[in-house]
Amino acid sequence: MTSSGATTPPAEAFYSVREHLLFGFSWLLVMAIGLLPIAEAVLNRSPSITMPATIAFFVAVGSGILLRRRYSWIGLVLHIYGQIAIWLSLSAMSLAIVLFAMGKR
């Protein structure tokens, strides 16, 4: 009797773990980039939006390209859109916190 495919071959299991790690790391990186204005304020630099926006865009698109085998095209679009939306919301909130804290001085 043969099994019904409940087990995955080792190569597929490796790609699955690798894709999960890539997915998680890309979300973690985008969230960290969203909090960059707070780090810039701690370093006494004026908060910038250009470089974090560029990095977040390329991380989102790059991880979407690397995950294209796992998801459908609509899943990739939602992944990229979600990462950019999370970055934008975190960046706006952290920038508002920095500007509020600087105004209190």
Overview in brief:
The protein is mostly helical. Helix content is 76%, strand content 0%. Helix 1 (10-34) packs parallel to helix 4 (73-103).
Number of strands: 0
User: What Rg is obtained from the alpha carbons, in whole angstroms?
Assistant: 19 Å
Q: Helices and strands, in N-to-C order?
A: HHHH
Uncertain residue segments? none
The share of residues in extended strands comes to under 5%
The pLDDT mean sits at: 83
Explain this structure to me?
The chain has 105 residues and is mainly alpha-helical. The protein is 76% helix and 0% strand. It is built from four helices and no strands. The chain has helices at 10-34, 36-42, 50-66, 73-103. Helix 1 (10-34) runs antiparallel to helix 3, helix 2 (36-42) packs parallel to helix 4 and helix 3 (50-66) packs antiparallel against helix 4. The radius of gyration is 19 Å and the shape is elongated. The N and C termini lie far apart (75 Å). The mean pLDDT is 83.
Which structural traits does this protein have?
105 residues; mainly alpha; 76% helix; elongated
Please describe the topology of this protein.
Layout: H1 10-34, H2 36-42, H3 50-66, H4 73-103
